[in-house]
Design brief:
The structure is a homodimer. Chain A has six helices and three strands. The first copy, chain A, is an alpha+beta fold. Chain A has a three-stranded antiparallel beta sheet. The longest helix of chain A is centred in the C-terminal third of the chain and has 28 residues, at about 70-100. Chain A is elongated, with a radius of gyration of 21 Å. Chain A binds a DNA duplex through helix 4.
Amino acid sequence: MMTFEVLAEPTRRRILDLLRERERLVGDLVVALPLSQPGVSKHLRVLREAGLVGVRQEAQRRWYRLQPEPLVEIDAWLAPYRQLWERRLDALERHLDAMPDAEAETKGEGL
Amino acid sequence: MMTFEVLAEPTRRRILDLLRERERLVGDLVVALPLSQPGVSKHLRVLREAGLVGVRQEAQRRWYRLQPEPLVEIDAWLAPYRQLWERRLDALERHLDAMPDAEAETKGEGL
DNA sequence: TTTGTATATAACCTATAGGGTATATTCAAG
DNA sequence: CTTGAATATACCCTATAGGTTATATACAAA
């Protein structure tokens, strides 16, 4: 499963967020998530196969930890787009700088 | 549909890549992709509803253009992870610097 | 006002992701 | 060597994503 597909699942993103903080046992995640234990285990398998998490066994317990490397690929895909929106935001900024009176009226509106 | 889910589909990422270059007609995309015209139109609808593309009509033709703003959200989710892998790569780099003899032997190997 | 072109929508089909429950597995403890 | 715990796997079920073909829509051109 491709990294993007793996990340499409909100629960899996949530798991990664939790693991970003520290290692966790499967049981910890089961408590933290609105999901059955097998459900959590299944997501962990997907994450493992994608290389996004690693496991360390300690007796019957399994400590899952984050492995962020595959996210580099996502970042790489994103890179050329980042330039585009930064250019756009810069242009907007310059525009606002050029007409400071309009700034107050525009506050809170979308692009 | 969430931005991450929209991007999970390879064809849709391909469409965005094509639109990054320049505006395109639906027909252009149909030619460029191994997909029927309705198939392309469906993906374009998903991209439109996600705010990732915009349309300009010219007679019967529709020019689709990229709208990169929703990608900011992806970038934001990624940000805290970026720090992590950068830290890891830095550590690796320092490690290699510390043992320069091993560098040649390690060339080409994965992490 | 018919015809052709470009695109969208409808209707349908199939594979599969993600959830649940039941069960297997693995190991420590007694 | 039986029991209890933590986790993984098997199996089933359902919703839906993504593909296709057929058709509707919108507009230019003739």
